[in-house]
Model the fold of this input.
Amino acid sequence: MTQSYDIDRDLREASAMTGALENYLGQSALYGSVGGGGFLALSNMPSLTVGALVMRLRRLAVLGDERQLDNTQRDKLWTIRREHDRIHAENRQPYAAKLRHEVESRLKAARQFFDECHADPKACARNYPPEVNRRTIAQEALIRMDALNIAPDDDLKALIRRTDNHLRRAANQEADFLWSAALAPAYPQDKFWWLYRQPYRPES
Done:
């Protein structure tokens, strides 16, 4: 995520992800692709996960409530959400399994970043933005789990606590909101605190 944000791009990505969601839920891989091979491949699209999709859907809904979407964009979002909800209703079990797997996978993947922070503070600061994105998508998946009354088990709760303890130590300085200001309404500081912190960057 950069400092710029494009609502239309988020809508395009959410639409493409939703179009591939039903097939993705029938596969075992955590990360799916949007589109097929050859001429149908959409190589400029991010990888498909349920967390990546619901992140876009939730923040677009918040921005709609904030009147940042025009009528055409609102209509597109409504169509995408309706299709997403249909697919979820017909695939509840694999959808829920993907969500939990994604949270666990993304949080465990942060271990390498924490090791880097311990060994090299400069690398810690340099590699923080991808970790912010990783933790945010994990949180979006947790928000979706909560909306579906899917409670994290004790092992997952412990993993969340450990990860956030390490992340707080790594991101040891307060900062202004790290993403585009347009997205701030969707990411309040009390729930997405890592978007308002950053690692100390040594001068030399």
